[in-house]
Amino acid sequence: MIDPYGRRVDYLRVSVTDRCDFRCVYCMAEDMEFLPKKDLLSIEELERVCATFIDLGVKKLRFTGGEPLVRKNIMKLFNSLTPYLESGQLREMTVTTNGSQLHRYADQLVDAGMKRINVSLDTLNRDLFRAITRWGDLDQVLTGLQAAKRAGLEVKINAVALKGVNDKELNTMLAWAGDEGFDLTFIEVMPMGDIGNESRLDQYLPLTEVRRLLEEHWTLEESSYNSGGPARYLTVKETGKRLGFITPMTHNFCESCNRVRMTCTGQFFLCLGQNEDADLRAALRSSEGDEQLRNTILEAISRKPKGHDFIIDRNNHGPAVSRHMSVTGG
Ligand code: SAM
Ligand code: SF4
Q: What mean pLDDT value characterizes the chain?
């Protein structure tokens, strides 16, 4: 699949649920209303749509949410895709998770063919973790991370940099990640969805500032490593691990964008920060064959926008797009 700007689209991120067992302050309001279950794609529909995308050339699948590992029967979906990994038609299948269920699932993820996972963790301080996630338990996540390590999964930690919240802890997190053998990526907070009384301007910490703070303690070396995603990587000389920065606000990373996203209701988004979409659920449910689904996907790819226009400043307090990150999956 090639878009109008000549970019090859071979990476699909699939949100398998909008529900979550956390309520992170930058992601959700505390009293979120979730979708009626009947609106969600069934596990069988998710299997069908993933298989169709693989057939159209998708090489990498990432499952996200909401929290993907709280979706009922999620392993059935992953296991149904293992044969595509074994045949080489799919290069990688992975998840982005908050880690709360990893103690239960780490071994099963490896059995399904996953090699690396992303785990979101913004702090190592128990009280702060509770304050950021509202409902989360840090010890449960740390236990899950150990299970992932034992199972042989490579782990990348994703941390959202939050001004006045975890900016004192950047060095501790980098040292901890180095000791555990995890890569670490910092993410700038993005203006997505109404988050109740919280303000994104208060939360926003530019990663140029994060880098400056880290460079007071660590030797950060330029790295040519490229995961194919928007992160720019450095190597931390002292730990030998990678340090990534995802900076949608201070840089535009769209020129090499190879990805598209689908929500848990089958809404297909061509860009995280724009509203162009297509209804894959209607296409899936309109016939038993996959012809219409394929055509709808290909037509949508021909409308992939050039880039996003996220902006957080004093004149622009509202979200750039009204949907929450937990809808499109981050
Ligand atoms: N629940 C899983 C998790 O937390 O990893 C997967 C879904 S979550 C929406 C995916 C990623 O998006 C997480 O790393 C989270 O920190 C990040 N995220 C959520 N809202 C964000 C926002 N407004 N700006 C930047 N990152 C955000
Ligand atoms: Fe849940 Fe992930 Fe959003 Fe936190 S960031 S509320 S864990 S979906």
A: 90
